[in-house]
Amino acid sequence: MILVRPKMAENVGAAARAMKNFGLDRLIVVAPRCRIDRRAYALASHASDVLDGARIVPSLPAALDGVRWAVGTSARARASEAVPDLPLDDALARLPDDGAMAFGPEDHGLANEELDCCQAVVRIPTADYASINLAQAVNLLAFRWFGLRRAEARPAVPAERADRGQMERMYAQLADLWRRIGYTDPQRQAATLRLYRGFLDRADLTPRELAALRGLWAQTEWALDRAFEGWSLEGRKGPKPPR
Fold first, then answer.
1. In terms of residue numbers, what domain contains 127?
2. Residue 151's pLDDT band (boundaries 50, 70, 90)?
3. Strand runs (DSSP E) across the chain, as ranges?
4. Cα angle value 76/82/83 (rounded, 5°)
């Protein structure tokens, strides 16, 4: 479970208790705006070990390092080519043992760029008022995940899939290459990267396939550097590439 920028220590503690109820013990807190103090431990109630083992990281990409498949949560529908809006059970049934569920802060939820780091978005079905307390949302998803596990729902994610840290480093390298060759600009980059995330994430790349792509892009960078020095790959004088 990943809690992004939580505001209230009580919610962190209550989320830890919900995790303990349903067999989850790996908690990551991203850039918390509260301390994990006595207020959190008071609400944890027999889940102090979950709080003791919680990792504090500065960003969601850092939290997703080593994660192969992540589900982000949102109170509203979100149309995206990169991140499908899946029914709750469909998304949770796909979660592998090294998957993650990410929850946004109490006041406004996950930002769009944070949802882009996930492979699916889910919403808890509600009546017209869709805003659910953070700890209650953790409780509901943990309960449903536990029920699916007991029903022996198996993950549909390939065992050899590259993890999210590897994928995020690849996307950062790709964006750097785009800037060098003028493929996109700062105004269009987010939308373009969202498109590429969609089909590259759906490809279920293995670490070897991902390394092959990164090797190709590194070679392209090398060729650009050679061209910039005034030489083509064949050793002849050539034009400088656009910057």
1. 2-150
2. confident
3. 2-4, 28-30, 55-57, 70-73, 100-103, 120-122
4. 40
Residue with structure tokens 């840290």? Answer: 165
**Are the C-beta atoms of residues 99 and 120 closer than 8 Å to each other?**
no
Torsion region of 190: left, alpha or beta (phi above 0 gives left; psi -120 to 50 gives alpha): alpha
Number of domains in the chain: 2
Strands of the sheet containing 120-122, edge to edge, are: 55-57, 28-30, 2-4, 100-103, 70-73, 120-122
Residue 236 counted as domain residue: no
**Predicted structure pTM score:** 0.71
Distance CA 7, CA 33 (A): 5
Q: What is the pLDDT of residue 39?
A: 96
Higher pLDDT, 166 or 238: 166
Q: Are residues 61 and 132 in the same domain?
A: yes
Contact 222, 177 (CB under 8 A): no
Cβ neighbours of residue 108 under 8 Å, at least 6 residues apart? none
